[in-house]
Amino acid sequence: MKAIAYYHSLPINDPESLQDIELPEPVAGKRDLLVEVKAISVNPVDTKVRQNVSPEDGAAKVLGWDVAGVVKAVGSDVSLFKVGDKVYYAGSIARAGGNSERHVVDERIVGHMPKSLSFAEAAALPLTAITAWELLFERLQVREGKTDQGQSLLIVGAAGGVGSILTQLASQLTALKVIGTASRPQTQRWVRELGADLVIDHSQPLSEELKRADHTQVTHVASLTETDQHFEQLVEALAPQGKLALIDDPKALDVTRLKRKSLSLHWEFMYTRSLFETADMLEQHKLLNRVAELIDAGTLKTTVGEHFGTINAANLRRAHELLESGKSRGKIVLEGF
């Protein structure tokens, strides 16, 4: 089968950083689905793994943790899906990625694809939807519904993949006042369209931007990018007993700064459940099904920002390059082999 992989960690401008290759057909385990991959999307994790993780023993390493496709075969213990089902999922970082014609994935982290979306539109959602949902409702412990008035959420990097779905979830499903950050006119417009009540510029000091907007403090922060750069400003912006959640990888944070305000720190990593096969691993299946229902009801919308064409090495290199530039908006999708 066709796949896109790498053998050495190389800069994305090197033609060998991602290559078109042939691999043997994968075989589904007991709880696995064998999926025919129709569309994929690209995430910052793809670029981080490519840059920092060298393949073992000279083997090809396949990236890609957002897939939409069709079930072609099921393992002996599969109970949630059948052959022919349209599915979408983010997969497990402990297994081969989905940048291949066929892919195997544990059924407990797979959702039924939204009926109203194309494969490309659906592929934009799984990883970021899981991350945003877990961050908002499990890490920050925000409650669904419109009863908790007076609380607010600052989303740093609201125009990116996770920010694009988090902005929608917070504005549509909670009572939070949603404040997104974006630094360019087109990304600021995108965040407003997704439902943010207020958009500020993260290229400026955040606490000053909030004051200019007549909003001196927030109760919750979702820091999705450059947390180390903004950390002091975030601590200043948070109200006493507020909550700070992050998804990126700052080299160091002085957490003693949180003590005076009794602030809590939360990390979200959507691969935790699949990596450790936690007892509640099935929650990601339920979560993706719920997101699909919200999409089909018109409550949420897909976050496709760019369609880069066919799934091949050249187009994936373009996608990695754009992600590494920090100037992407929404999600980059590719479709078909």
UniProtKB/TrEMBL annotation:
<dbReference type="InterPro" id="IPR051603">
    <property type="entry name" value="Zinc-ADH_QOR/CCCR"/>
</dbReference>
<dbReference type="Pfam" id="PF13602">
    <property type="entry name" value="ADH_zinc_N_2"/>
</dbReference>
<dbReference type="InterPro" id="IPR011032">
    <property type="entry name" value="GroES-like_sf"/>
</dbReference>
<comment type="subunit">
    <text>Homotetramer.</text>
</comment>
<dbReference type="Pfam" id="PF08240">
    <property type="entry name" value="ADH_N"/>
</dbReference>
<dbReference type="InterPro" id="IPR002364">
    <property type="entry name" value="Quin_OxRdtase/zeta-crystal_CS"/>
</dbReference>
<dbReference type="GO" id="GO:0005737">
    <property type="term" value="C:cytoplasm"/>
</dbReference>
<dbReference type="InterPro" id="IPR014182">
    <property type="entry name" value="ADH_Zn_typ-1"/>
</dbReference>
<keyword id="KW-0560">Oxidoreductase</keyword>
<feature type="domain" description="Enoyl reductase (ER)">
    <location>
        <begin position="13"/>
        <end position="334"/>
    </location>
</feature>
<dbReference type="GO" id="GO:0008270">
    <property type="term" value="F:zinc ion binding"/>
</dbReference>
<keyword id="KW-0694">RNA-binding</keyword>
<keyword id="KW-0862">Zinc</keyword>
<dbReference type="GO" id="GO:0016491">
    <property type="term" value="F:oxidoreductase activity"/>
</dbReference>
<dbReference type="InterPro" id="IPR020843">
    <property type="entry name" value="ER"/>
</dbReference>
<keyword id="KW-0479">Metal-binding</keyword>
<dbReference type="InterPro" id="IPR036291">
    <property type="entry name" value="NAD(P)-bd_dom_sf"/>
</dbReference>
<keyword id="KW-0963">Cytoplasm</keyword>
<dbReference type="GO" id="GO:0003723">
    <property type="term" value="F:RNA binding"/>
</dbReference>
<dbReference type="InterPro" id="IPR013154">
    <property type="entry name" value="ADH-like_N"/>
</dbReference>
<comment type="similarity">
    <text>Belongs to the zinc-containing alcohol dehydrogenase family. Quinone oxidoreductase subfamily.</text>
</comment>
<protein>
    <recommendedName>
        <fullName>Zinc-type alcohol dehydrogenase-like protein</fullName>
    </recommendedName>
</protein>
<keyword id="KW-0521">NADP</keyword>
